[in-house]
């Protein structure tokens, strides 16, 4: 994409958040236009996961968050999820004792109507492994398969914005490409992506834009290719 639309799908302004009285985010400003893949990068402790949790309504915040024209201030997490801003958290948080099928169906718990489970077709198209393992307990899947299941469960909500927190964590290297390919295909279906990911080279190669966080502040923002080519970023985050 060449630029932001006048009314971005997600607009975060002067966002602050704290854990147990300790400020973690210090006036974050970001925008995500409909149809973009936007990466959030930074060192451990920079506030990346906190940013996603704040947008998802999982912690108290200050500042403003607008999604699809709706003010998210004071909305509970389940309301934000139903609006279409859906977080796939770090660690996946699956129901390990339940089957793959049950985990997926739980993702559609808030939907109504005869097409409630229609997204299953899309999930199986993106992740054929899940269809092969429908009756298998989630806790018996490999790390990569569990991540596929976590993303698939989120897709069952029919999201407009999919927020991914470290989707490659705990995954065999040969499956990382499958996850990144799925992210691009999901964007191709009209879902906007906001991604925090430790594999920065791969992530910046598929992202449109990126934000760099440092100690809870945005210190750099721009097109992903520009961020990837920046000498300071390459030294600090890409090991180059």
Largest sheet: 6 strands, mixed
Distance between the termini: 26 Å
Spell out the helices and strands N to C: EEEHEEHEHHHHEHEHEEHH
Number of domains: 1
- As for the CATH topology, it is Rossmann fold
Tell me roughly what share of residues is in helical segments.
Answer: 25-40%
Which whole number gives the mean pLDDT? 89
Q: Strand order of the main beta sheet, please?
A: 6-7-8-3-9-10
Query: Helical region count?
Result: 10
Structural class by SSE content: alpha/beta
Give the CATH superfamily.
Answer: P-loop containing nucleotide triphosphate hydrolases
Q: How many strand elements? A: 10
The rough form would be described as globular
Overview in brief:
By secondary structure, this protein is α/β, with parallel strands linked by helices.
Primary descriptors:
alpha/beta, 240 residues, disordered N terminus
Please describe what this structure looks like.
The radius of gyration is 17 Å and the shape is globular. Helices cover 35% and strands 26% of the residues. The longest helix is centred in the C-terminal third of the chain and has 16 residues, at 173-188. Mean pLDDT is 89; it is low at 1-5. 42% of the residues are buried. The chain starts with 9 loop residues before the first strand and ends with a helix. By secondary structure, it is an alpha/beta fold. Strand 4 (61-67) and strand 5 form a beta hairpin. The protein has one domain (35-57, 76-236): P-loop containing nucleotide triphosphate hydrolases (Rossmann fold). Keywords: Amino-acid transport, ATP-binding, Nucleotide-binding, Transport. Residues 10-240 form the ABC transporter domain. One of its GO terms (molecular function) is ATP binding.
């Amino acid at each position: 994409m060449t630029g932001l639309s006048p009314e971005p799908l997600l607009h975060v302004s002067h966002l602050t958040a704290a854990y147990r009285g300790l400020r973690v985010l210090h006036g974050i400003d970001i925008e995500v236009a409909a149809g973009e893949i936007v990466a959030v990068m930074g060192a451990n402790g920079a506030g990346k996961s906190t940013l996603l949790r704040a947008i998802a309504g999982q912690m108290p915040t200050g500042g403003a968050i607008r999604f699809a024209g709706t003010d998210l201030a004071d909305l509970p997490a389940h309301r934000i999820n139903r609006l279409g801003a859906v977080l796939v958290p770090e660690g996946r948080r699956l129901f390990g004792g339940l089957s793959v099928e049950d985990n997926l169906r739980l993702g559609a718990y808030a939907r109504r109507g005869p097409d409630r489970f229609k997204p299953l077709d899309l999930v199986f198209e993106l992740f054929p492994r899940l269809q092969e393992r429908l009756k298998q307990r989630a806790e018996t899947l490999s790390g990569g398969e569990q991540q596929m299941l976590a993303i698939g469960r989120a897709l069952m909500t029919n999201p407009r914005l999919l927020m991914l927190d470290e989707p490659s964590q705990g995954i065999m290297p040969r499956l990382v490409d499958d996850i990144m390919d799925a992210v691009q295909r999901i964007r191709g279906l009209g879902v906007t992506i906001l991604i925090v990911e430790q594999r920065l080279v791969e992530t910046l190669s598929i992202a449109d834009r990126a934000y760099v966080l440092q100690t809870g502040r945005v210190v750099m923002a721009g097109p992903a290719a520009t961020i990837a080519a920046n000498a300071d970023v390459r030294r600090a985050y890409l090991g180059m």
